[in-house]
């Protein structure tokens, strides 16, 4: 099997993520919130760092149950900032809780983040097959559009580069390299 460059010669965690998650379309709202949070946490760090702490994040953030995270209070903030098992960036933690509260409002209004994000691509994944990693953009007009819309809707820490990675993680964008033989969509 030939993989994207970032997953070649990687550890088992990265290889598994590449082979079974990254670029795989999801319609699961809990998973969407989890990946939103993990992508936010990755800003300025490596994805390897985030993946190695994923189980700790799940424990610290109530398995990304958006209703529970939305109810986190000042004591939870202190607990999270002091949790050595996660990335202890106070702003990222605060914005995760804020975003959970925004999502709860959406859910009460009958909206989901997952359906919203997929609506930008007509509910069909955008399949790109870039020749090299250097060709894969850090952001695109789509991620810029989604980022702007999310910020206008009150979400935080959703810049176009974070959104680009998030859309890839959700399988909305399938940016496996042309040489990659991992096939999520049966093409």
From TrEMBL:
<dbReference type="Pfam" id="PF03352">
    <property type="entry name" value="Adenine_glyco"/>
</dbReference>
<dbReference type="GO" id="GO:0046872">
    <property type="term" value="F:metal ion binding"/>
</dbReference>
<keyword id="KW-0862">Zinc</keyword>
<dbReference type="InterPro" id="IPR005019">
    <property type="entry name" value="Adenine_glyco"/>
</dbReference>
<feature type="binding site">
    <location>
        <position position="180"/>
    </location>
    <ligand>
        <name>Zn(2+)</name>
    </ligand>
</feature>
<dbReference type="GO" id="GO:0006284">
    <property type="term" value="P:base-excision repair"/>
</dbReference>
<keyword id="KW-0479">Metal-binding</keyword>
<dbReference type="InterPro" id="IPR052891">
    <property type="entry name" value="DNA-3mA_glycosylase"/>
</dbReference>
<dbReference type="InterPro" id="IPR011257">
    <property type="entry name" value="DNA_glycosylase"/>
</dbReference>
<protein>
    <submittedName>
        <fullName>DNA-3-methyladenine glycosylase I</fullName>
    </submittedName>
</protein>
<feature type="binding site">
    <location>
        <position position="176"/>
    </location>
    <ligand>
        <name>Zn(2+)</name>
    </ligand>
</feature>
<feature type="binding site">
    <location>
        <position position="18"/>
    </location>
    <ligand>
        <name>Zn(2+)</name>
    </ligand>
</feature>
<feature type="binding site">
    <location>
        <position position="4"/>
    </location>
    <ligand>
        <name>Zn(2+)</name>
    </ligand>
</feature>
<dbReference type="GO" id="GO:0008725">
    <property type="term" value="F:DNA-3-methyladenine glycosylase activity"/>
</dbReference>
